[in-house]
Amino acid sequence: MIEKKKETLDNLYYGAGKQQFDFFVAGTYIKDGETLFTKWKKFSEAVFPIDIDGTSDDWKTQKFFEQINQRQILPNEIVLDIEEKKQIKPILITLKKLKSIDVNEYHIYETGSRGYHIHLFLLNEEFNEKEKLFLIKKFGSDIQKCSDKCLIALENCPHWKTGKIKRQISEEKILNG
Amino acid sequence: MVKKKELLKEIGYEKEQTKKPKEEKAVTTKLVKVNSSADKNSQLREY
Fold first, then answer.
1. Contacts of A123 in chain B (CB under 8 A)
2. Which residues in chain B have Cβ-Cβ distances shorter than 8 Å to A98?
């Protein structure tokens, strides 16, 4: 699990972000039976010192890494956050009609809590907040996700509310299901 | 990966941005003549 987290975060930083965006990560921990939030740390601070197996020589760094379960939305990323499964199909149909987007360029996740995320990434470009808002409104998803102050559940990690893993789901499953 | 310019064009963002903003209604001020010749001597008026 911890190795998968390292892999997921690295994929975002090196793959989707091309090392251009030092995005924030944060997590939760339980104290006296209550779920509390950690402070936000930059990827460079929280993940650079972590080895490929998800460990670090520094126990504080290691502890923080273990707590990470949320991340900032990248400037080159759009997150379409929808509540109901039935809302995904019409969005996918619209996305498929767009010539500027290929099938491999969006990823659908069930968040582990309520709702679903569809992630879209740009190559070497950024969206501004106005553009994000327009796109998000166009698809009728949650407009809070246009802000860079908004953290989302980290992919392939347990959701802080439910403990269920945010998993990718196939497009076929949605379209044929 | 997705090309921003093409995507925004396809979803109508650029078109939306080039739209002229709606003309704002001109604010009209109605002046009330207080000291008309008819009531030159009357400074107190009820409205």
1. 1-3
2. 7, 10-11
Q: Which of A105, A131, A135 sits opposite B1 (nearest CB)?
A: A105
Q: Are B3 and A125 an interchain contact pair (Cβ–Cβ within 8 Å)?
A: yes
Complex prediction ipTM: 0.76
Q: Which positions in chain A touch B10 (Cβ < 8 Å)? A: 98-100
- Based on the fold, state whether residues A51 and A81 are members of the same structural domain: no
**Same-domain status, A61 and A88:** no
Say if residue A58 is in the same domain as residue A107.
Answer: no
User: Which of the residues A14, A131, A132, A141 would you substitute to probe the B interface, choosing the one with the greatest number of B C-beta atoms within 10 Å?
Assistant: A131
pTM check: above 0.95: no
For B4-36, the pLDDT digits (tens) are 888 899 999 888 787 766 666 676 666 666 665
Same domain? For A90 and A135 the reply is yes
Q: Which of B1, B9, B16 comes nearest A123 by C-beta?
A: B1
Of A135, A146, A143, residue with least CA distance to A101 = A135
Domain interval for residue A128: 77-176
Same domain? A41 vs A120:
no
Picking from A120, A125, A134, the nearest residue to B16 by CB comes out as A134
Tell whether A46 and A84 lie within a shared domain: no
